[in-house]
């Protein structure tokens, strides 16, 4: 191999699959991804949903061809546990920021439970000023840290469930939230405190599930780094298709798989295809499988499987 060809060659190995990281507090999601990428010597990696530096929990990391399925995981339901401290607002809406307001008002357990339905379903939410949302090309948190006043627009988010888990003392309460894409727990805690006639901020936040991924399949960063670049570390990789469990699967013949891999649609209008079409809906997504592996994400249109994302497995 010439020197120029070696320079063009991608760094790292071709690693395909999902690694479900239990992110520790104190590092960003991007830092966590980079550590995993280096540990597994992977060419390509990304994550499915940012966690704040102070937050812990489930950070699904896509490696190689799995990065093509990230949007489907990010659209999935997420579960969080957080502790809300009453009587003290912070600039960041969590424990990291400076105190901006205090209040002597404390809500009762009954008042908290009575307020939760207003934050369930589709709600309007203003993201925290300290967030990764871009404002005129700049990250909101960069502007906020520079002392600029950041005014972010309200957006619609889905809160599927908002449950009070514990209210053992007047100053704090612990909650579980099941939400859709784009919901900020820091905003939810802030707005709940305001509705209860006080102010507040989140002191701890943990994500316990993202789409099909939960704590049962997660590995801590410490454990992963201890295993290093070893066969034991790679045993924690999940197949690409694990992220797509709620999308119907269809087994292909070898010939059909070759067509899809080359970007060509596959017709499914023959008599022998009728049983295979039972669960498919027009315009719906389909996992095209061959020999137990994901060949492509496709869309079922006019009797054909049209490739949307073709996988190039190692």
Question: Short summary of the structure?
Answer:
This protein has 314 residues and is of the alpha+beta class. It has helices at residues 3-8, 29-40, 70-74, 109-115, 140-145, 185-195, 221-227, 231-234, 254-261, and strands spanning 17-23, 45-47, 56-63, 78-86, 88-90, 99-102, 121-125, 134-135, 138-139, 155-169, 172-179, 200-210, 213-214, 219-220, 249-251, 266-267, 285-290, 293-301, 304-310.
| Main beta-sheet annotation | 10 strands, mixed
Helix content: 10-25%
Provide mean pLDDT, rounded. Answer: 88
Task: Kindly give the count of domains.
Answer: 3
For this structure, the CATH topology of the largest domain is Pseudouridine synthase
Mass-distribution shape: globular
Query: What do we call the CATH homologous superfamily of the largest domain?
Result: Pseudouridine synthase
Distance between the termini: 21 Å
Which class best fits the helix and strand makeup? alpha+beta
Written as H for each helix and E for each strand, in order along the chain, the element string is HEHEEHEEEHEEEHEEHEEEHHEHEEEE
Any low-confidence stretches, pLDDT <50, length ≥5?
Answer: 3-8
Describe this structure in words.
The protein has 314 residues and is an alpha+beta fold. The protein folds into 3 domains: 3-76 and 212-242, Pseudouridine synthase; 78-210, Pseudouridine synthase; 247-310, Archaeosine Trna-guanine Transglycosylase, Chain: A, domain 4 (Roll). The chain contains 9 helices and 19 strands. Strands 1, 2, 3, 4, 7, 10, 11, 12, 13 and 14 form a 10-stranded mixed beta sheet that branches. Strands 15-17-18-19-16 form a 5-stranded mixed beta sheet. A hairpin with a 2-residue loop joins strand 17 (285-290) and strand 18 (293-301). The longest helix is centred in the first third of the chain and has 12 residues, at 29-40. It is globular and about 70 Å long. The chain starts with a helix and ends with a strand. 33% of the residues are buried.
